[in-house]
Amino acid sequence: MAPGIEPGERRRLELSLAEVDAALLRFATYTQHKSQWRIAATLANKGIILMHLERYEEGIHVCGEVVRLYGDRSDSPTQVLVAGALLQQGLALTALGRVDEAAVAYDDLLQRFAETTGNPDLAAVVATARQLRSSGRQG
Question: What's this model's pTM, rounded to 2 decimal places?
Answer without folding.
Answer: 0.71
